């Protein structure tokens, strides 16, 4: 399958690309692609013409591009303007380009932070209605609405994956949030989302399997065939509070 990955130069994008490279022909796109590396193109998702060019002749898109530099509850007027440009307008541009290119499957990367407004005592369904807090979560919720609109109005096949922070098994940090997800399981989810049959529009949550999990994984198992393989607790990681601040959260790349 010929797959475009937007935001392929980011923290998540590079690892997902490595994980899928053996199975698919990848077109790696980023606003700042690494110089001299084969298979990369420059893509600013806020530019409709670049989005159209990037989606030409691909079978599927994994949309990972986000406003780089900060994530989560970071708030700044100028950066929030960029967030809306990339996370909302950019998502619309990619979806419109994919529609025109007759892309067979689009996997959009959302965030469990769209449900951050639910009480911390509640279990959260895989496709719970958004209840965002902060502009990052708000832009991600708006992007989900754009995806639903394209699926409904244009018959596109779209999976919205709500994900937490993913982490490498050799990450030097030992204290983590209980929802964090090991990269091998995240890559599994993307691999399955590309090819799962009978998808019109689905919101599916994938989080780490741990004793602290309160996000539902049953839909991921039922719709995608996903099966978690790694419990970070069993690899020397210590579970902290799900909203405990961690220094590394300040940077996306």
Query: How many domain modules?
Result: 1
SSE arrangement, N to C: EHEEHEHEHEEEEHEHE
**CATH class designation:** Alpha Beta
Rg, rounded, reads 17 Å
Shape: globular
Spatial gap, N to C terminus: 27 Å
**What's the CATH architecture?**
3-Layer(aba) Sandwich
Q: What percent of residues are in strands?
A: 15-25%
Mean pLDDT: 93
Please tally the helical runs, counting DSSP H or I stretches of 4 or more residues: 6
CATH superfamily: NAD(P)-binding Rossmann-like Domain
Number of strands: 11
At the fold tier of CATH, the topology name is Rossmann fold
What's the layout of helices and strands?
Elements: E1 2-6, H1 11-20, E2 25-30, E3 40-42, H2 48-55, E4 60-63, H3 77-100, E5 105-111, H4 135-154, E6 158-163, E7 166-167, E8 175-176, E9 181-182, H5 183-195, E10 201-205, H6 218-224, E11 238-239
Parallel strand pairs: 1-2, 1-4, 2-3, 4-5, 5-6, 6-10, 7-9, 8-11
Task: Summarize the model shown.
The protein is of the alpha/beta class and 253 residues long.
Give a quick set of tags describing it:
Rossmann fold, seven-stranded parallel beta sheet, single chain, alpha/beta, 253 residues
């Amino acid at each position: 399958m010929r797959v475009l990955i937007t935001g392929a130069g980011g923290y998540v994008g590079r690892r997902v690309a490595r994980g899928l490279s053996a199975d698919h022909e990848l077109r790696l796109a980023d606003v700042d692609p690494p110089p001299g590396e084969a298979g990369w193109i420059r893509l600013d998702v806020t530019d409709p013409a670049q989005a159209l060019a990037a989606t030409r002749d691909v079978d599927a898109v994994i949309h990972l591009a986000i406003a780089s530099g900060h994530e989560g509850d970071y708030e700044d007027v100028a950066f929030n303007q960029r967030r809306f440009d990339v996370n909302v307008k950019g998502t619309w541009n990619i979806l419109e380009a994919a529609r025109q290119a007759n892309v067979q499957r689009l996997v959009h990367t959302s965030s469990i932070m769209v449900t951050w407004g639910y009480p911390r005592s509640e279990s959260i369904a895989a496709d719970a209605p958004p209840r965002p807090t902060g502009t990052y979560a708000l832009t991600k919720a708006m992007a989900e609405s754009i995806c639903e609109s394209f699926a409904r109005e244009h018959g596109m096949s779209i999976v919205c994956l709500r994900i937490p922070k993913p982490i490498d098994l050799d990450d030097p940090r030992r204290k983590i949030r209980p929802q964090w997800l090991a990269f091998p399981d995240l890559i599994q989810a993307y691999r399955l989302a590309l090819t799962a049959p009978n998808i019109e529009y689905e919101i599916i949550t994938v989080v780490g399997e741990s004793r602290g999990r309160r996000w539902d994984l049953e839909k991921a198992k039922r719709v995608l065939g996903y099966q978690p393989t790694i419990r970070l607790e069993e690899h020397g990681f210590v579970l902290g509070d799900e909203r405990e601040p961690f220094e590394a959260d300040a940077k996306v790349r």
